[in-house]
Amino acid sequence: MDRINRGDEPVVFSLSEDDNEMSSAIELANKTLVDFDEALKFSENQNFALKIRYDINDKSEHIWAVNIVKSDEDYFGIIDNLPNSEINIKLNEKVKIEKEKISDWMFSKNGKLVGGFTIRVLRNKMSELEKEKFDREFIFSID
């Protein structure tokens, strides 16, 4: 697992494009997107976010968008983290999210993470110290 330190920004963890666990997590997120859509309808759920795949040359970067709304079949959100690559998006920019570009989803229910399949894969690959730091800084608890 690669770690990218960015000064005052959180450390970015990444895996190779062919990591089987990450590929499975992305596949699961796509198969269960209907659960995310259903949860959007209920006010007790909060902090809706979608992870978007941006293709850059022969690689991909995945970036979270928050404040998700769905209108008909279209998703919209606000970019929530700085890209590592030269992508034509900016932090806090409102974007339309293409369904086929979604690589993960998450929201919180009673303070607990729901979804976040790629987050769970990355967390499982962290050292114990990295997990402790991540858990202190992450806004939801993870079962």
UniProtKB/TrEMBL annotation:
This is Uncharacterized conserved protein YegJ, DUF2314 family. It comes from Epilithonimonas mollis. Pfam families: DUF2314. Residues 19-137 form the DUF2314 domain.
